Amino acid sequence: MELWIYTSRRLVQIVIIFFVILTVLFLLFRLAPGDPVSRMVDPNLTPEDAQLLIEELGLDQPVWIQYFYYLKNFLTGHFGFSFHYGRPVVQIIGDRLPNTILLFTTSIILSALVGIFLGKIASWHKGEKTDTCLTVGALVTHTVFLPWLALIMIWVFAYKLGWFPITGMISEEVWLDPDAGLWPKSVDILHHMVLPLTTLFLIHFGSYLLIMRTSMLETLREDYILTARAKGLPEKVIRNHHAAPNAALPVVTSVGLSLAFSINGGALTETVFTWPGIGRELVFSVSHNDYPLAQASFLLIAAVVLVSNLVVDILYAYLDPRIRY
After folding, report:
1. pLDDT tens, 189-200?
2. What is the pLDDT of residues 64-74, one digit of tens each?
3. What span, in angstroms and rounded, lies between the C-alpha atoms of 214 and 237?
4. How far is CA 270 from CA 33, 87, 99, 147, in A?
5. Residues near 65 by Cβ (< 8 Å), separated by ≥ 6?
6. Contact 256, 310 (CB under 8 A)
7. From CA 201, how far away is CA 110, in angstroms rounded?
8. DSSP letters of 283-320?
9. Per-domain residue ranges for the chain?
10. For the whole model, what pTM was predicted?
């Protein structure tokens, strides 16, 4: 099958699946107990005012009418206004998304590069002390409970030693200083990133190391590796130029999906470190029944995951000539 035909079919499937996800999300939030008005903490809000607010939000309409307007707004690129912030959802996501991309994309790329490199070394020294230390270290860090590790990092390096900020992404004294230029602000963000970035790196690099090690060991048993050795090629060339590119294919899938899921910002990480990203906003919107913001956040995640799967499949065909669609 031609690649473009396969891509066209997948795009049709993505549209159908996305529409199903959109519908399910709409129904789930409407069927959830409570409403946005009951979550608004305002002691001066009378029952009459609450009812008027419900009518203004359109929550008094039948579900099918709400769905019709929601679908119409979605097709026209309007995701509504946040019930809590009173701002367009697109603006809120636009403010939070760069923060999430900065932190999580950096951590995933760094974790993948280190994991692939160490995975090659571990497989090449199978059964030796180097392999044992790397494998055990990867297993330990990969299975650590993320919130516990994050709190330990904060307690040791931020609270006890005072090397890094405890929470947040920026320092007010730096960003409110009219004389502060781009460099001090960039350094301030990087300073706040160190702890969450280190936590995410320790959690994720182990999985890439283990995947690369397993794939590399399988690749080293292939016939073309034996042929390369029979030709007298150096072991370093065989490892880096013959075995590693093919062994890295499963890692490419893992990295691609990790980048896609990183768009949700890792709710736990952003909550613990008070990082102002999509994940933290998603938790807040769900807990406060902020339908427009929560639905738009979930739809963004779904769209990125669906498209990323397609990109990874297409990338496979270019990385491995044996794969045809």
Report:
1. 888 888 999 988
2. 777 887 787 77
3. 19
4. 26, 22, 10, 10
5. none
6. no
7. 7
8. HHHHHTT-HHHHHHHHHHHHHHHHHHHHHHHHHHHHH-
9. 95-146+205-319
10. 0.76
